[in-house]
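Renewal narrative, Specific Aim 1. Our central claim is that a sequence can be written position by position from structural information alone. The example that follows is taken directly from our test logs and has not been curated for this report. It begins with the C-alpha cells describing the chain, in the order in which they were read.
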C-alpha cells in the first residue's frame, strides 16, 4: 500500500490498524482483588450472594402471589396480604410488591362486593 509520496499509504495502513483494535472490558472488585473478563465473579463479591439470588417463599412465587391465588378459595388470605402490603413487607424483597398489591386490590373488590350484597339483602 505504498503510494508515490508514501504518506497516503501510511495513513491507510494506520486506518486499517485502528479498525482491527479489540476492546476488552475488565471488571475489578475492591474486595479480595477479584477480577473477571466480560462477566461478574461467580459467587458474588467475597462469596456473598445477592438479594435476588434467593428464591421467593411459597413455591417460588412469593407470599403476595400465593395469597392472591389462594384467596379465591379462602378470601381472608387477601386481607392478610393487604396487612403485609400496608406494613411495607415488600421492603425486605421488592419482588413481593406486585403480588401484595394485587391481593390488596382483590381484598378491596371483595369488600365492596360484600357491602353491596349485604345492602341488597338488608334493604329487600
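The sequence written for that structure reads:
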Amino acid at each position: 500500500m505504498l503510494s508515490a509520496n508514501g504518506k497516503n499509504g501510511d495513513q491507510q495502513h494506520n486506518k486499517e490498524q485502528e479498525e482491527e483494535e479489540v476492546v476488552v472490558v475488565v471488571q475489578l472488585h475492591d474486595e479480595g482483588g477479584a477480577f473477571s473478563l466480560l462477566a461478574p465473579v461467580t459467587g458474588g463479591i467475597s462469596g456473598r450472594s445477592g438479594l435476588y439470588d434467593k428464591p421467593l417463599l411459597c413455591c417460588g412465587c412469593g407470599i403476595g402471589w400465593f395469597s392472591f391465588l389462594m384467596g379465591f378459595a379462602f378470601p381472608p388470605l387477601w386481607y392478610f396480604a393487604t396487612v403485609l402490603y400496608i406494613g411495607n413487607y415488600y421492603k425486605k424483597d421488592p419482588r413481593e410488591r406486585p403480588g401484595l398489591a394485587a391481593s390488596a386490590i382483590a381484598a378491596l373488590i371483595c369488600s365492596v362486593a360484600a357491602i353491596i350484597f349485604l345492602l341488597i339483602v338488608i334493604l329487600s
